[in-house]
């Protein structure tokens, strides 16, 4: 029994050590380059512009909550596309033809920028999904001033949060308070 416990402890320590040496992508991390993806619709880019705000929605054709969130994201994109780059980033799928067809048939008039990352082992998977610990969808990344400022879900992205981003007064705490109520009072205090 002692040997078994020692073995388990050894495996855990080795695993934590190997994990600690890896690259992590978390809130507050600087990001300069966008992973290598194939742009299906809209304007593609390879590097973040520090003067722009990016809202990156991770989705897949098999993810019902992702698909249900898309109209809301497109509404925000239509309204704020002059100030914010909205990206619908397909992930965790290998078949680009299927994704392209899905977009063309389901969302032909959407203003979002659509990109295909590919499945496991893709550049996006290696540089964003695994380092951020993303294993479930939908997931939203918000980038501002070349910094990943928030990892959240599409339900958290609303008009009030967009206004915080545009005013330059965004913090995760302020955004979370907006989710819990008191939107008008808190937003007025933050923007003033």
TrEMBL record:
GO MF term (any one): oxidoreductase activity
InterPro entries for this protein: Redoxin, Thioredoxin-like_sf, Thioredoxin_ResA/DsbE_sf
Keywords recorded for this protein, A-Z: Cytochrome c-type biogenesis, Disulfide bond, Redox-active center, Signal
One cellular component term from this protein's GO annotations in UniProt: cell envelope
Compartment(s): Cell envelope
Residues making up the signal peptide according to the UniProt record: 1-20
UniProt cross-references to Pfam families, sorted A to Z: Redoxin
Ranges of residues in domain Redoxin: 55-146
GO biological process, one term: cytochrome complex assembly
Keyword presence, Disulfide bond: yes
Keyword Signal: yes
SUPFAM superfamilies given in the database record: Thioredoxin-like
Protein name: Redoxin domain-containing protein
The organism of origin for this protein: Filimonas zeae
